[in-house]
Amino acid sequence: MTTTKLSNDVLSIEIQDFGAELHSIKKDDVEYLWQGDPDFWARQAPVLFPIVGKLKNGSYTYDNETFKLGGHGFARDQVFKLLESEANEAIFELRTSRETRAVYPFDFRLRITYKLIGNQLTVKWEVKNLDDQEMYFGIGAHPAFNVPLENGTFEDYRLTISPAKSRQYIPLNPATGVLDLSQKHAVDQNDFTLTRELFKDDALVFETPEATEVCLSSTVNDRSVKISWEDMPFVGLWSPYPAEAPFVCIEPWCGIADDQNTDGDLTTKFGINTLAHGKKFKASYIITIN
């Protein structure tokens, strides 16, 4: 496993080639990114592709064929190629392989760019359809941040979604990990004090059809993490329950888990993205560290 290090006057980060996954985000020698203790959750910030979340029964159908695919897809368990690396920017690439085609019948190219500017890390995704047919996919982020960031307790921290407005909440079934779209409803709450019970029904999933940001902050210090994006239609907020894990995930998604009533057809999957032959899909988000 190879680690790429980027830094500027404010931040230093590390990215592993395995999964092109963030491994560290430091400011003032304080580690903001969860360090992957396997007693709670061994991952840190996996890239979710070509699906986000779980499939009903762990499978989908395409062109009259059934494919088995685990939750969040396969990119997080693939070794990416490092294409470019400078002091403050790195680009990683994953392409189709025999292994990926066994579970996902499309030729693709996925590039992930990490770039530092001041106290911000911008993460860019570019998916290109190299196939001769339309391609169907989801892509998402799953970064976990230490709670507490420096001092205090889990309950001293809060998550705030902006803009402050009513937004659609989509319940997950904690037993299956899939959605219950029939129970989707508006929620006016935008500010959530962290408690263990907050996540007793799995992740909190919201629709975010407009530019959105989620801030992790504290009442006992000035450190915070803000995730912002322009073009991600969903966000998940998650910490394991009932384990008292010292982290929380803020997850902007272009894709989402199956609905419990799905027929399994990938082409009509809720939240799926469609990409024509030769075309590119781009999305990005920014992590601001204070």
What does this structure look like?
With 290 residues, this protein is mainly beta. The protein has a single domain (3-289), classed as Beta-galactosidase, Chain A, domain 5, CATH 2.70.98.10. The protein has one helix at 98-101; strands at residues 3-7, 11-16, 21-27, 30-31, 47-48, 59-62, 65-68, 81-85, 89-95, 108-117, 120-129, 135-137, 139-141, 144-146, 157-162, 167-169, 185-187, 191-193, 204-207, 212-218, 225-229, 234-238, 247-254, 273-275, 280-289. The strands form six sheets. The protein has a nine-stranded antiparallel β-sheet, with no helix packed on it. This is Aldose 1-epimerase family protein. Pfam families: Aldose_epim (PF01263). One of its GO terms (molecular function) is isomerase activity.
